[in-house]
Each structure stands twice: as C-alpha cells, then as structure tokens.
Amino acid sequence: MVAEEFSISVRVYIEDTDAGGIVYYVNYLKFMERCRTEFLRTLGYHKPAILDDGLLLVVHAAQVDYRRPARLDDELLITSSITKLARTYIEFKQQVFREQELLSSGLVRVACVDAALMKPRPIPADMHQQLSQLQISQI
C-alpha cells in the first residue's frame, strides 16, 4: 500500500506575491495543482490531466480556506491525499505549510470527462484500481 500523503516543496518567488509582498490567493491553487500533478506522476501518469481514450482530468470543485499568509522567499510544503474515490472523480485534501504552520487547506474534486463532450466518464479501470489501493485519508 502506498503512503496516503504526498508532498512537494515550493519556494515563493516575487511572481507569486501581490503588491503587499504576500502570496496572491489564487497561487495557493496553483501550488496545490502542482502537488496533485506530481502525485499522479509518481504513479506513472506523465501527463496526468490527459488520459488515454480522449479523457481529461479537470477540476470540478475547489474549496480553499486561508489561515495565514505566505511571503516572498518562504519555503512551503504542499501536501495532497485522497479523501474520496468515486467512479467519475477523485477528491483530494490539500494543505500548504510553512515549517509546521498550516497556512491554507483545501478540498479539490477532480472529475474525469470526455474531452470532446466535456461530460463525466468513468476513471479508466487501471487508474481507478491503482488509486483504490491507496489509503484514503480522513478529513
């Protein structure tokens, strides 16, 4: 069984900040996207948003809570774990830390859709099976 939580480190650059020198709120979503992408890459999906047979993985919903600001040059730890695996979507719990301090947390639902029709489709069987073998984290 694979560990339930995956993480990456991210450095905050000037391009990530607003005029006040703090990370612009939408960039937390970008950091979370990178973490989910790298998580799926470790499972062998080298273009995680584009699957075989004309399928795409797209963000369907995102809920983000902001607690404390990250600032220029901070080193952040971004985590990702699966909280729910359904037939057509995966729900991820994601967190952003500076050292041990939780800065932001979110729930992101990623749906599998037909690229041409943009309609929900089942996650490919091999991917679903692989993800189902991971520990599902509790919220």
Automatic annotation (TrEMBL):
InterPro entries with a match to the protein in the record: 4-hydroxybenzoyl-CoA_TE (IPR050563), HotDog_dom_sf (IPR029069), Thioestr_dom (IPR006683), Tol-Pal_acyl-CoA_thioesterase (IPR014166), YbgC/YbaW (IPR006684)
Domain Thioesterase: 20-103
UniProtKB keywords: Hydrolase
Matching SUPFAM superfamilies: Thioesterase/thiol ester dehydrase-isomerase
Pfam families: 4HBT (PF03061)
CDD domains registered for this protein in UniProt: 4HBT
Similarity-based family: Belongs to the 4-hydroxybenzoyl-CoA thioesterase family.
Protein name per the record: Tol-pal system-associated acyl-CoA thioesterase
The organism of origin for this protein: Cellvibrio zantedeschiae
